[in-house]
Amino acid sequence: MGRHSACDVCVDERRVSAEHASLHWTGGRWELRDLGSRNGTLLGGQRLSPGERVPLAEGASFSLGGTSPTFVLIDDSPPGAAARHHSSGARRTASGGMLLLPDEELPLVSVFENGEGQWVAETGDDVQPVEDRQVITIAGEPWTLELPPRDTETWQSDIRSPSLETIHLRLAVSQNEEQVAATVVMGRREEELPARTHHYLLVTLARAWLEDRDAPAAKRGWLGREELCRMLATDVNKLNVDIHRARRQLAVLGVQNAAGLVERRPSTGELRIGVRSVEVVRM
C-alpha cells in the first residue's frame, strides 16, 4: 500500500510514502506492517513504529500518514486466490476455491488447490504447480497470481464441509437426451444445479463409470479424450471449457476438491467422473 503506481493499493496523497505499509495474510490472521514510512501508519489513532507488525481484528481501522481514506477491515476471513492482468490491471478472483482465467465465460486455465494442498494450474491435460506472485501466460497475455498460504486451522474446519467422497450426484436425463437436471445430495441437503449444456458431459462420464462396475477401481470408467469428443459432438477446446465450468458449479456449493469432479490421465488423455456415488435416471 502506498503512493507508487505499482502498489496493489495506490493512495495518491502527498503524505503517503511510495511504499507505505503492507497488509498480509500470515496463514492464521491479517497483519498490518509499517514499511518505514515518513508520516507513519496509524492504527486506531496510534502510530506504529517503523517496521512494526500488528495483528488486525475485524472492524479495525487504520490510515496511511494520517490522511484519508481510513481503511477498515470489514472481513477477517482468509483471502481467496486471485490474478491480476499485467497491461489492463484487471483482477480476477476465485469463486468457490477455483480461479478461472482469463474469465468465467471462456475459461482456458483453472487454478485450484489439489488434494495435497498445493496450488496448481490446469490447462487441458497439463497440470503444473504454481506459487504466489508467479506470472503465467494465457493466450499470450501475462497474469500475476495472488495465492494465499494454507491456514492449518481453516483446513481442519474444512474437513466438515462436503467433499467428493461424501456427496451423491443425481443426473436426471430426458427421454430425448436433450435435457439434464443435475442434483447434488449432501447429507440431508439437496441442491439442484442451474441447467447447463455441460451437464451432458457428466452424464456421459457417469454412464461409463456405471457400466464398468465390474472393473478394478483404478481402471474403471476411463474414456479417451478423442472418443469422448466424438460422443459429445464437440472439440477438445470446448471439452476443456465445459470441464472448467462443471467443476466451478460444484466449487460454488462449497464442495472440497471440486476440481476432482472430472479426473484426467495426463499421460493418455483419458478422463472419468470423480464422484464415486453417482446415478443416471430418467426424468
Automatic annotation (TrEMBL):
Pfam families listed in its UniProt record: FHA
CDD domains listed in its UniProt record: FHA (cd00060)
Coiled coil stretches, renumbered: none
Region Disordered, residue ranges: 74-94
InterPro entries in the cross-refs: Cell_Proc_Reg/RNA_Proc, FHA_dom, SMAD_FHA_dom_sf
All residue ranges annotated as the FHA domain in the record: 1-48
Domain of life: Bacteria
PANTHER family, sorted: NUCLEAR INHIBITOR OF PROTEIN PHOSPHATASE-1 (PTHR23308)
Name of the protein described by the UniProt record: FHA domain-containing protein
Species: Polyangium mundeleinium
